[in-house]
């Protein structure tokens, strides 16, 4: 029996463990520096930066998702951004990922979101195929840009 429950602060250690499992599973190309304190301070404060859900099958944690709201000037409405979705390998192929996306889609509808978006590593072919199978569209016209802490500080310190 699958349960999808909002994460609570007492789940911080479990979330950290699942995030690290995801990084190993995806052979994530970037350093994972998140700590339990980061999770507690950012997901469970009075005005959280993001939210998390944890999936359980027969009371055993089988996965998680972290998401947050965005805003689009093009639509004039908020959107829901899925930052991470991970289902442990031994639970994959049981429809759990699809149920999580359905759960989040319903949340997006309740919150009047114009968009529900996420990223996938270009090397994650199984995820890309899965997302396309459920009707998600790959956006070739967009490029994702990123600045890390050092780059942010350098740009911030330059005179205008």
TrEMBL record:
Lineage top rank: taxon: Bacteria
Domain N-acetyltransferase: 2-160
InterPro entries, alphabetized: Acyl_CoA_acyltransferase, Diverse_Substrate_AcTransf, GNAT_dom
One Gene Ontology MF term: N-acetyltransferase activity
Stored SUPFAM superfamilies: Acyl-CoA N-acyltransferases (Nat)
Keywords of the record: Acyltransferase, Transferase
Pfam families given in the database record: Acetyltransf_1
Protein family according to the UniProt entry: Belongs to the acetyltransferase family.
Protein's UniProt name: GCN5-related N-acetyltransferase
């Amino acid at each position: 029996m699958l349960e999808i429950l909002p994460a609570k602060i007492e789940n911080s250690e479990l979330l950290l463990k699942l995030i690290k499992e995801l990084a190993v599973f995806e052979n994530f190309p970037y350093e994972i520096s998140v700590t339990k304190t980061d999770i507690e301070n950012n997901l469970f404060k009075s005005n959280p930066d993001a939210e998390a859900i944890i999936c359980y099958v027969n009371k055993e944690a089988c996965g998680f998702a972290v998401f947050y709201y965005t805003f689009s000037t093009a639509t004039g409405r908020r959107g829901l951004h899925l930052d991470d979705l991970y289902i442990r390998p031994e639970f994959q192929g049981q429809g759990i990922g699809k149920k999580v996306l359905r759960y989040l889609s319903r949340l997006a509808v309740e919150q009047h979101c114009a968009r529900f978006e996420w990223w996938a590593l270009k090397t994650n072919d199984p995820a890309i195929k899965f997302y396309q199978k459920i009707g998600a569209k790959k956006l070739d016209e967009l490029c994702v840009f990123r600045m890390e802490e050092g780059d942010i500080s350098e740009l911030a310190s330059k005179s205008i």
